[in-house]
Amino acid sequence: MTAQLRVVHGRTGVDVEAARRAVTDLLVALGRDPGSEHLADTPRRVAHAYSELLTPREFDLTTFPNEEGYDELVLARSIPVQSLCEHHLLPFHGVAHVGYLPGERILGLSKLARVVELFARDLQVQERLTKQIADWLRDHLAPKGVGVVIEAEHMCMSLRGVRATGSRTVTSALKGVLREDPRSRQEFFALAGIS
Ligand SMILES: [Zn+2]
């Protein structure tokens, strides 16, 4: 028996029209002329870009019974992450390594990437994003353990301020066996390619 759950998110959607007006105001505040030929369509483009970056695609979460009794780590490596830092509204991007030790149910592998997207398409800080993915998997899959590592470069650090270009921030969230058992934890980090 498979179990399906339509994943909907209670987030308030983006008011694209209001965002377009606000970008026009922002251009004026930045000393630019939104009436100029080059900038005429910029407010609309920016509003749509933010809307896209803040709206995850809905997906059906299909879980399957773990009939074979698979009890080794399932790990998806280098899932692309694109998100927006809530402090600067600038992107941060990188990869997520998401693993779990199955309990009674397993999840379609492609769904791990959709869970990452579900929380990445929001105004975020990397620490919270990492934890939300781990908590969601724990709550929906009841696995024996969950591990999430995100490595990301933050444009607010690369382009301004300290200008730490190329520097990556690494965050992790571990649950259950992966948190408690050093051997499992080590195996997870080794498979994720983190030493
Ligand atoms: Zn920032």
Automatic annotation (TrEMBL):
Its EC number(s): 3.5.4.16
Pfam families: GTP_cyclohydroI
Annotated keywords: GTP-binding, Hydrolase, Metal-binding, Nucleotide-binding, One-carbon metabolism, Zinc
Residue intervals of the GTP cyclohydrolase I domain: 20-191
PROSITE patterns named in the record: GTP_CYCLOHYDROL_1_1
Catalytic activity: GTP + H2O = 7,8-dihydroneopterin 3'-triphosphate + formate + H(+)
Assembly notes: Homopolymer.
Name recorded for this polypeptide: GTP cyclohydrolase 1
Species per Swiss-Prot/TrEMBL record: Allokutzneria multivorans
Gene that produces this protein: folE_2
